[in-house]
Amino acid sequence: xxxxxxxxxxxxxxxxxxxxxxxxxxxxxxxxxxxxxxxxxxxxxxxxxxxxxxxxxxxxxxxxxxxxxxxxxxxxxxxxxxxxxxxxxxxxxxxxxxxxxxxxxxxxxxxxxxxxxxxxxxxxxxxxxxxxxxxxxxxxxxxxxxxxxxxxxxxxxxxxxxxxxxxxxxxxxxxxxxxxxxxxxxxxxxxxxxxxxxxxxxxxxxxxxxxxxxxxxxxxxxxxxxxxxxxxxxxxxxxxxxxxxxxxxxxxxxxxxxxxxxxxxxxxxxxxxxxxxxxxxxxxxxxxxxxxxxxxxxxxxxxxxxxxxxxxxxxxxxxxxxxxxxxxxxxxxxxxxxxxxxxxxxxxxxxxxxxxxxxxxxxxxxxxxxxxxxxxxxxxxxxxxxxxxxxxxxxxxxxxxxxxxxxxxxxxxxxxxxxxxxxxxxxxxxxxxxxxxxxxxxxxxxxxxxxxxxxxxxxxx
Length: 461
Description:
The chain is α/β, with parallel strands linked by helices. It contains 16 helices and 15 strands. It has helices at residues 29-45, 63-68, 101-109, 112-121, 153-161, 201-211, 225-239, 266-274, 294-307, 324-327, 341-346, 359-368, 379-392, 408-419, 424-441, 446-459, and strands spanning 20-24, 49-54, 73-77, 128-132, 145-149, 175-176, 185-186, 218-221, 244-246, 281-285, 310-314, 332-335, 350-355, 371-374, 395-397. Strand 11 (310-314), helix 10 (324-327) and strand 12 form a beta-alpha-beta unit. Helix 5 packs parallel to helix 7 (225-239). The chain starts with 19 loop residues before the first strand and ends with a helix. Residues 21-251 form the Glycosyltransferase N-terminal domain.
């Protein structure tokens, strides 16, 4: 096994050592990047040193952070634990897809012993760990653990609700979450995918990891009081303390704010948007994992044609219909690859975002004040869509389900109406929410204040 050497002691010049924090991301882009953004903010706000646990193939994600804070942040690289259930070389969820989460989580648990050995041999061991909420077993490393939620407090509250109520899944009837604010009712198939629906050992271990987070020393959310105040308060109630921090949206203040690693032709994209009327363009992107089927692509393309709405579709590897680009030339643009989503959503020409409602996309849309046309595709995303559509009124449902092929006439009609006069009120609420959320991250804002509280908490350990 590769021996991991602890970083050298920082120079103290007669002063006490800086607080040393261990950060442990989960290897999936939607989890890892927000936690690195949080680490960036902690380094800006506090005089600390940080060690980030990482495996070799995930090390490149740390490059911007290591460049920005060369004296404060170091990477601690452990070999990825091999598993016969995982294809050779897999170290990130993007290599296997979301269905591989239980397998990745099982492999990550095998890092416990080498991490404990590293902690015991370190001359200035960490005073706390901030680890992803998929890594609940890190509660048991002998130091205070702050669970980091790359998702929202609403989803976390639902996971906690089911921690001792798994028997409810024996029914096919909708489930009322009576303990939560608003007592929401969900269909079984719309509940978080982390709630196991099969009795396999890996699923049960994953369930235990994701449902033991409220027993952590603290909880940190990529969310904010103005979006999820009632659920952040619920978390405080259930944990029995106030070490609950809503520090988002991290996309507004993080290292990835500029999306400089985009693979699309950014100049062509922005130039095209510059030539469009304010609020006239629908931006379409379904995250880093989802690839539409041919039938879904055909239906969406035809709906866009029927809607007569201007659009930008970031399609990655989706099978776009032959001739579609020619039929919408001048009105629509299709790009392959990775787009600068924060910059696109912030462009004045963009008035709507057709999204799968993954939490990072949600936070980027909310921060930009952009209305969401919601097509939730996974169970977690149904939770996010409920928050946006019913609780906040900043989104409308246009389709539901990862395998659903939308009706082209209906989808085209909803897109046209929502992007037109019928969507005025929703767009207005989204814009107002965006102003409120952005203010939260400014100096003295509620998210900035929670970040300062977290820095103080870490410094006192």
